[in-house]
């Protein structure tokens, strides 16, 4: 049965750097390309840094209890301190159950809470609690629904929380669990991970972000662990004192306020007082709105922009659905990858203020526009734009960029160390970056706009989509929901981890953030993370009329999330939403590695699991067979079209018989790739055997 995926969805080919020189292009100073990330994360365990400021909170002698736990893995016993609040090794998985891999025996187990984050460990045990609640071990273990949601802790012991305990106020506190021997001495203690109970008590489907009416502007923020939330309203994008500081009111984990219509066009910042597990403190965090739709040029303030306003819609915008190029079948899709800045950065036919930005696509006679029209006439159906959301690594204020004069570069050979050195010296301050450093998923990148303040980025992004559609090309947006660039309470690029610390980012069994994607993995298995992803996709599809989505490291997202996203997009209609959702195509990198491998955090959207969904996956088998090698192999290893056996390049492929067999196997992989989504295809392989090909082949 067809899966609506093309056999030629190969791993994206590199985009050439803007200047004519040979140096590795980069996605960002902290985030290597997907292939390099795979190489890095498959062999190196994620770095587990100690929490920020931890030395100021606890002195070393106070980090351990008097005895070690009886149940402790060899890895834990050699790599971490037992009984430390720096770790969060217990999981509050539902309102009534805490999971912890600890043996109590004849002793006892307690839940402790401190509203002021005053918990500390001493030789006498744990001190500073406001609340101390006894937990009872459930000899039946964790229930099946908990094991399904948290497969990585399925063998942990279950401890029942008293049924009359009001858990909601405790979730705003510093929390710990501790075990005590029969003589009353503390034997173990650790912090708690809370996503399970937060999903259980606070899953929410109501309004979030800014909502606009004729009379007012309303703000909604999901922050169930926050002790207090205020919003600071500013007239200007930077500098000055706030016009107002308004305290939000909470109802069941959602903080909200209603302001005057005059707020529209202003900027705002949330001030969130919340316990942060990375510092073991109550922190006052300043953060943008996770549902931001506009930003200031320095990215520090959220713009109150109503995307339904007619003054930020290009002429004919509401009727663009009727101008979309026809696509009769997803199997007809042919995709061209493109970097927004590179498209026009060196095109002298483009006005200097438009170069490298959204508006360059609106010109009819530029070299890039002429080329795109030719591609459309030749059969290309979609343009895949590398990340265009708000990402770190490129200053949105162009006057802060540094560059190297191309004439200076041309004086040196393109592979010279001197040219490389000139580029390296300014690479963290120039205007170039792939964009895989997400900060806010729902706002167009400011550096591609003629002015990063105000509504320019919104209207100019819309003009770009409209122009590409009129060239005969649909638009695919590269979305990076698998990780975020920032985390913690003070990082300027941290947003979600300031609002609900410890929830949006996936953590390991010690409580530290997973980094297998490259940095700050997100956790779509958590309800409100999944909701944010689906909401964001709908936002881009409806508000910007994007025609498809390419998911970076899709395998790190849960299959359920991807299916929900596809169903939500397919439900969009021309009559109600101005979008034909049935024509929106989604696909991604279905690699299976890191902590999610083998369904380690739930059924993930890997190549193994995505069949039958109508969601496409990149085909690494046909890529490696055609080109040779792999992200982990030697760069000179040859493939079917690069001279394997027939035109040796000097690389040692082994004896001739081995190279011949490699070539024959490459042919098999290419045939399988060409068969693509025909799950019942039977291959006669190079050994003359019939092989049944399925989704795991």
TrEMBL record:
One GO molecular-function entry: pullulanase activity
InterPro entries: GH, Glyco_hydro_13_N, Ig-like_fold, Ig_E-set, Pullul_strch, Pullulanase_N2
Domain of life: Eukaryota
Domain Glycoside hydrolase family 13 N-terminal, first and last residues per copy: 207-292
Pfam families noted in UniProt: CBM_48, Pullulanase_N2
GO biological process, one term: carbohydrate metabolic process
Signal peptide range in chain numbering: none
Span of domain Pullulanase N2: 88-200
PANTHER family linked to this entry: GLYCOGEN DEBRANCHING ENZYME
Family under the similarity heading: Belongs to the glycosyl hydrolase 13 family.
Protein's UniProt name: Glycosyl hydrolase family 13 catalytic domain-containing protein
Organism per entry: Prunus persica (Peach)
